[in-house]
Amino acid sequence: QVQLVESGGGVVQPGTSLRLSCAASGFTFSSYGMHWVRQAPGKGLEWVALIWYDASNTYYADSVKGRFTISRDNSKNMLYLQMNSLRADDTALYYCAKTPVASNSYADFWGQGTLVTVSS
Amino acid sequence: DIQMTQSPSTLSASVGDRVTITCRASQSVSTWVAWYQQKPGKAPKLLIYMASSLESGVPSRFSGSGSETEFTLSISSLQPDDFGTYYCQQYVKHWTFGQGTKVEIK
Fold this sequence. Notes:
Chain A has strands at about 5, 10, 20-25, 35-40, 45-50, 60, 70-75, 80-85, 90-100, 110, 115-120. Chain A is mostly beta strands.
């Protein structure tokens, strides 16, 4: 069965960096687009970034453009989110999500999330 | 950027009631709309995609309709397990979510 397991969250100070990981299993990871989505405490869902199946295209929300980088290693079935210059408003639960196509579509599976807290 | 505006933000209904949630897009998104249910402490769960296609395993009391800029999610007969927050999403260009509708059972 499809599994997405995020890791790498934690408590960090403003201005620092963090790399999130998402381990995928139960499907042919290299065939599908993947997203990162975040949810601040008590708030709604906010899209963060998209990467196509072969990493040929990446897209970002304006709120993270220039600070965050989405990447993938299809040989390891891993998705990543490198987060630099973190700010307090980046505090959120970060989900990885799979699309049912190679590029962009809705999410048919989600991980359980990893919590990032940015605080001094 | 495409904005998605949901209404109402909260609703309280009784078991057996028909419930409708509306989502309006700031520009046409054709039928590239999905709906998700999220329960406290859990990841979102896909209910509807392509505006009206029911995801496998989702009860048939859930249905979606609409196109262009106006979309609705309906629950024909509200059940106790249907509490949670519902989000619409456009995926014609990246993703945008509505702000969510919290559904409470009276």
